[in-house]
Amino acid sequence: MSSTDSSAKPPEAPLQHDSSLTVDKQVSLTLGSDSLLIVGKTSCSCPSCAQPPVALSVLTGPEDDRPARKSNRGCCGLFKSKAKPKTTHAICLYNVLDAEVNPSNLVITYAVPSTKDDVSVTALHYPIVEKEKLAVEAWVQQLLNLAYGNAQRRKRLKILVNPFGGKGTALSLYQRYAAPVFAAARCHLDVQSTERRGHATDIAKQLDINAYDAIVCCSGDGLPYEVFNGLGQRTNGREALAKLALALLPCGSGNGMTWNCLGTGSVSIAALAIVKGLRTPLDLVSVTQKGTQSLSFLSQSFGIVADSDLGTDHIRWMGAQRFTYGFLVRLMQRTIYPCELAIKVDIDDKEAIKEHYSTFLTREEEPDADRKRVEDAQQSPGMPKLQYGTVEDELPTDWEVVPGETMGNFYAGNMAIMSKDTNFFPASLPNDGLMDIVTIEGNISRVTSIKMMNEIPTGGFFDMPDVKIRKATAFRLVPHEKEGYISIDGEPVPFESFQAEIQPGLGTVLSKSGRVYEADGPR
Ligand SMILES: Nc1ncnc2c1ncn2[C@@H]1O[C@H](COP(=O)(O)OP(=O)(O)OP(=O)(O)O)[C@@H](O)[C@H]1O
To answer: Where is each DAGKc domain found (predicted)?
Structure first.
């Protein structure tokens, strides 16, 4: 998979005989396998095309007050339109948001790249006469079938905005970049701001799970963490987590969920990916500490990563550099984080992990698997029992005890990308029933440590001999020190023993591919 922002594989479909439509006497609209081809004396009104609109107009949502920006891209970025008048355009079907026949016009609404990092909404309008209507309506259905494939149209979205997420601009980001895309795709929107820490959990606990298709958080990873936990705390937790898909519009400082599921850090491109998003089962991890149980969707960490993230609050003024600075300081000091660790290991050989990953990619998908999963959850709606009990139970005898006296980094990942350009767990899969655990000794040389950091963006990290990787179903970690940091999805939890267990396919997200993350797999 690539992490390209705006393009995606549109649904495959053969070219039909009736896939061409002639409108406005001399404009032909042809449905290809991945694009809508427009040939005729017409032009596009997107900011990149210089020709004034003949049968087109630019649509922006009520809140979208962005000025039209000039770009050198052609329509949908596919054709460069220097020649005038332009007679051929291609619109990527993935970008088509809606199409309809109103009393006198065919209107096709779509997203067009407005800058490198954004799309905005544009529409084509063609006059239609009464006798053409039936044929045009049938063609519109074909267009929408191809444009949406298996993605649900007109999704009902509960939008939760954290007004304090990231730089405190989540609401304006939503209004400016996402709302126009959702409106053009005719999604049903119910927008609510969170008023305090924990509010998203309470909302998820009480939400009518039949009234929405997805919950969209405009925040960082903190709000989805709360929503998963709120859904999981309901008496019908399993049903709620199966029915409602989650998605994240990247409005926080850490937006791991968006990078993994939607492959972008752009709010408008993520909104388009949500409109076209496919329901995807997601393994969740249940974490127990003394007397508590919570759900994790992203990661659990102990050691240098948790310490550099949560233990650097005093240097918040540094912004995003805070983590890197904290990390380097600890690395130079060759800090160790002694602990006891036991893992229920499934695969501990790197080549076998790569094999597991590539087998998963080629595995045939069971038809109707998602529908069956939801039906099963409706039949037994309560949360599934933990297979290995809690951290307070006896340690199972078949778990591998891993020496932890010189632990440097313990990092368990449920998704591949932890933040932009940090594909820490390349072999992670949304629904293989396994978590990926990386352990690194704290006493390795500084040179090796620096090399490891540099190898993360290039993908060389996975194969480094000092990086131990296991696929596992559970683990227990007991810290030896009295004080320190444990991070669950970037949130601090008490510094005490914890046990984590994967719960296969318990949660649901909207993703671009429907089965893998938008990250490069292991090489
Ligand atoms: N109205 C509110 N006031 C204060 N805190 C809130 C409010 N709404 C949500 N929160 C809390 O803000 C926390 C951080 O949220 P989020 O992940 O959206 O942003 P972020 O910028 O990525 O955060 P961080 O930098 O802390 O990781 C969440 O744990 C959530 O509970």
So the answer is: 152-291
The pLDDT-based confidence of 513 (bands split at 50, 70, 90) is very high
Tell me if 222 CB under 6 Å of ligand 1: yes
Stretch 79-99: mean pLDDT: 74
Tell me if 171 CB under 6 Å of ligand 1.
no
Q: Which helix (H) or strand (E) holds 326?
A: helix 321-332
Q: φ, ψ for residue 89 (rounded to 5)?
A: -130, 150
Which runs of E-coded beta strand occur in 270-429? 278-289, 292-296, 299-303, 339-347, 400-402, 407-413, 417-419, 422-423
**Which atom number of ligand 1 is nearest to the Cα of residue 217?**
18
Find the farthest-apart pair of alpha carbons in the chain and give their distance in angstroms, rounded.
80
- In whole angstroms, what is the distance from residue 442 CA to residue 190 CA? 48
Tokens of 8: 């995606």
Which tens digits make up the pLDDT trace of 97-144?
Answer: 999 999 889 999 999 999 999 999 999 999 998 888 999 999 999 999
Q: Which atom of ligand 1 lies closest to the CA of 253?
A: 22
Q: What's the gap in Å between 288 CA and the centre of ligand 1? A: 23
Q: What is the full DSSP assignment across 21-52? A: EEETTTEEEEE-SSEEEEESS----STT--SP
Residue among 179, 38, 40 at smallest CA distance from 97: 179
| pLDDT > 70? residue 61 | no
Instruction: Tell me the CB-side half-sphere exposure of residue 403, using CA atoms within 13 A.
Output: 4
At residue 332 the predicted structure's pLDDT band, cuts being 50, 70 and 90, is confident
Q: Name the DSSP class of 104.
A: S
Q: Residue 477: exposed, middle, or buried by beta-carbon count in 10 A (0-12, 13-18, 19+)?
A: buried
Q: CA distances (Å), 198 to each of 1, 177, 231, 422, in order?
A: 35, 26, 13, 28
Q: Is 163 in the pocket of ligand 1 (CB under 6 A)?
A: yes
At 25 the pLDDT is 79
In contact, 469 and 427? CB cutoff 8 Å: yes
Say how far apart CA 438 and CA 433 lie, in whole Å. Answer: 17
Please name the amino acid found at residue 43.
S
For 431-520, strand residue ranges (E) read 435-441, 468-479, 486-488, 491-493, 498-511
Q: Helix, strand, coil % (nearest 5) of the chain?
A: 30, 30, 40
Tell me the mean pLDDT in the region 46-56. 36
430 in ligand 1 pocket by Cβ < 6 Å?
Answer: no
Kindly state the tokens that stand for 49. 């095309």
Cα(264)–Cα(5) distance, rounded to whole angstroms?
A: 5
CB-ligand 1 contact for 250 (6 Å cutoff): no
Mean pLDDT of 459-471: 94
CA distance 252 to 262: 15
| Structure confidence at residue 475 (pLDDT) | 98
Nearest ligand 1 atom, CA 163: 1
